[in-house]
Amino acid sequence: xxLHKGNMIENFQTWSHKTVQHGFKSVYHISFNHxxxxxxxxxMQTLDELDYLLDTIVIPGDYQGLILRSSKGSFVVxxxxxxxxxxxxxxDEDIDKILKRGQDVFNKIEDLNIPTVAIMGGITMGGGLxxxxxxxxxxxxxxxxxxxxQYTTHQLTKLALPEVKLGLLPSWGGTTRLPRxxxxxxxxxLICSGRNVxxxxxxxxxxxxxxxxxxxxxxxxxxxxxxxxxxxIQASKCVPPDGNLQLYWLGCIRSxxxxxxxxxxxxxxxxxxxxxxxxxxxxxxxxxxxxxxxM
Length: 295
Fold this sequence. Notes:
This protein is an alpha/beta fold. It has helices spanning about 45-60, 80-85, 90-110, 125-135, 175-180, 185-195, 200-205, 215-225, 230-235, 255-270, 285-290, and strands at about 1-5, 5-10, 10-20, 25-30, 65-70, 115-120, 125, 135-140, 160, 210, 275, 290.
C-alpha cells in the first residue's frame, strides 16, 4: 500500500533503483501485492492502479527500464473470474468495457519506449500471463525444492491460459501475442487445451527467456534491460510469425485484439464453447474456436 499525490495505491509496492551499469539511471519496480488476498489477481481496482502508475510515474519518468514482479509466492493468478461471471447477462457494452480495460493497460506496457521485464514465479495464469506477454522479456524463478524452508506447492511453476475451460478466449492479448512469441502451432495447442506449462517446457518452447534462482532474478533483469534489443522485439510483434499457416488474423497487434474482444464477448453471452476438431486439423485458433449461436 502506498500514497501518491493523494491517491491510495492498495495492491502494489513500487520503488526505483539506480545502478552504475545503467549510467545511474533508475530502473522502476512495480510489485504486485494484493491487499485483500494471499495471491494476486487482476481485478478492476488493480488494473486501475497499474494504469495510474504507468501514466503518472513510468511514462513521464526518466527510467532505463521497468520490472514487474510479485511480493507474494506467485506472480499473478489471473483476472477476477467474478467480473466475467457478473458480465454474463450484461449488455455488450459492459463486457467490451472489461475487455478494453485490460487490453489498454497491457498495450501501454508494450508501447513503452523502455525495456520491460516480468519476473514470474509460481502460478502465472490467464491475465497474469497475458500481462507478461506484453513485456519485452520474461524471467522465470526456478522451482523451490522440498528441502527449502519456505517450500510450498503454490511456488511450483504453472503457466497457462485456462480461459477455454470457462468457455472464453484469452482476450487481453493472449491469442494475439502468444503466437508471436512461441511457435504458432504450440500457441494454438496451449490456448485450445488451457493446460499448464511447467518450468522446463516453458524454457524449451520460448515462453520464458531464462530460469534463475530467486536471489539472482533481479540482477538478471538488470542485465536484460541493459542489453536487450527492445525496439527489435516491438517491431517483430508486428510481423506474422509464419505465412505458411495462413494466420490471417495476425495483421497487427491492435487488429488482433479487436477480434479477441468480439469473440470473447460472444463466448460470455452464450456461455458455450465448441472446439471444431483437434488443433492439428483446425484453422487458426480464432477460427478453430467457434461459438454456437444464441438460441
